[in-house]
Amino acid sequence: MYAAAVFDLDGTILDTLDDLQLALNHTLDAHGFPPYTRAEVRAMVGNGLRRLMADACPEGTPQAEVDAVFEDFCAYYADHCNDHTRPYAGVVAMVGRLRAAGVRCAVVSNKGDFAVCELMDLHFPGVFDFVLGQRDDIPRKPGPDMVYAAMAVLEADQSNSVYVGDSEVDVATAANAGIPCLSVTWGFRDPEWLSAHGATELVDSVEGLGDAILAG
């Protein structure tokens, strides 16, 4: 089995889409910008909140206003990030199963660290060995830096670690970190999209994910 498993957050272990859409549209409306559908937001997330705000603002929006949208979004989302968010069914038990078998587990996310820490404390208190959200002092995914930080704390290396995610960003992150990637199909990207963007091992169930990690 793998000694360490590094998980993405949004779309992988937590279903955060409704709260992201509601917070985004609330913020855009406050700035007089048009809203996005749930399907549109699902396709946009994965590269961090700053990138999401830049993509969501109309083309030609001055950078100063994009920055203001980002700040307003973060303030609103901090208070509403858990209104509808929930773990995917079976994830808590699956991670418990991994840890009982001796697998060390971490979460690294392009979501802001303030929201990652809050959501992990609410839904997975004490479940993961290491948690890291996007911060200005470390490059975001798909750079490998966040994964390397997790592996260092988990005392693991490229020979015994696996990365788990739900998007093309996660596929690229694992490749850049030099470790295998398990791509889950219940998240924010469809299986066809994942395969077209380099995913080589698709996992269709939480139980199957646990089996794959334990099988190594």
Structural class: alpha/beta
Assess the beta-strand content as a share of residues.
15-25%
| Number of DSSP-assigned strands | 8
Q: Could you give the distance between the termini?
A: 4 Å
Q: Mind describing the biggest β-sheet? A: 6 strands, parallel
Element-level helix/strand string: EEHHHHEHEHEHEHEHEH
Mean pLDDT: 97
Rg, Å, rounded = 17 Å
Q: Strand arrangement, largest sheet?
A: 5-4-1-6-7-8
Shape type:
globular
Low-confidence stretches: none
Percentage of helical residues?
A: 40-55%
**Discrete helix count:** 10
Describe the overall structure.
Strands 5-4-1-6-7-8 form a six-stranded parallel beta sheet, sandwiched between helices. A two-stranded antiparallel sheet has the order 2-3. With 216 residues, it is α/β, with parallel strands linked by helices. It has ten helices and eight strands. It has helices at residues 17-30, 38-44, 49-56, 63-80, 91-100, 113-123, 145-154, 168-177, 191-196, 206-215, and strands at residues 4-7, 14-15, 86-87, 104-112, 130-134, 161-165, 181-184, 202-203.
Architecture blueprint of SSEs:
Elements: E1 4-7, E2 14-15, H1 17-30, H2 38-44, H3 49-56, H4 63-80, E3 86-87, H5 91-100, E4 104-112, H6 113-123, E5 130-134, H7 145-154, E6 161-165, H8 168-177, E7 181-184, H9 191-196, E8 202-203, H10 206-215
Parallel strand pairs: 1-4, 1-6, 4-5, 6-7, 7-8
Antiparallel strand pairs: 2-3
Helix pairs in contact: 1-4, 3-4, 5-10
Give the tags.
single chain, 216 residues, alpha/beta
Short précis:
By secondary structure, this protein is of the alpha/beta class. Helix content is 48%, strand content 15%. It has helices at residues 17-30, 38-44, 49-56, 63-80, 91-100, 113-123, 145-154, 168-177, 191-196, 206-215; strands at 4-7, 14-15, 86-87, 104-112, 130-134, 161-165, 181-184, 202-203.
